[in-house]
# Entry
Amino acid sequence: MGLDLITQRNCEVKEKVSQNELLNLIKERNRAQQILKMVLNSGKSKEEALDTEFTQRLQTQDGIRDVKVKVSSLLEKTSILDSLGEFCKDCIISKNRPFGCIEYISYPISLKCEKWLASMASVAYKKGQPYSMSIEFILDQKIDGARIKQMRMQGQTFFESNKPIDIILSKGLFSKKKIDTNQLLDITFLQGLMQTTHINYLLMMFGSIVTDSEEPKDKPFKFNEKEKKYVYLDLNLPPDYDKSIFEFYNYFQHLFLAVINGHDVLMD
# Structure
């Protein structure tokens, strides 16, 4: 379970299948491959693994129902992805990865990741504009983080920690200005469409978009022909990163490629 996001760039793949259908096909193939691998690792033959049945929960017009599906049937059903993936080779968003316009963040989000996000937000606020504009938006618009708070109340389904982390912005003798990671995450991943303006301010807080004459290593970038410089997101993984931090790092890089090419991102 997690957050799915897809860059809103028209392409040949999306002309052949809808975005929802594409997401569902990818999820079904991943599920079949995971079960295939698990059964093979248990010592069974490939034929036995392909013949394995499992229960799949589907949302239909008549409500939720459980159906039994064979691994082989699901792999056959999703085989269209092999040919569709060929269209991604020259995509500026996919970067030669099949369906690279799709990214995800899995739940639960770790406490370590929340601390990492909070530390970057704190540094950005101290640097001032334009780095602090996302936090100023939280304060000005009185974003209360209620949506994230509700998610946090579901045990450890969505978050490892049952409490948000406070981000102290300033301290006075009798008061202090602060936000917490409920509010921060409320603007970090949205329900629905995240537009390029929002993405730009978000990335200024979590790193920043910079230009350099040297090609960056191990980071997505775009070469600016006019200025003859490389454009990239100045964000690095901490040495002790975990799965959540790694996925958020990829998420921000995904947003960078979208915004630098003028595309919004849909989140589900």
Remarks:
- The CA atoms of residues 19 and 155 lie 31 Å apart.
- The mean pLDDT is 89.
- Residues 19-41 form the longest helix (23 residues).
- The radius of gyration is 21 Å.
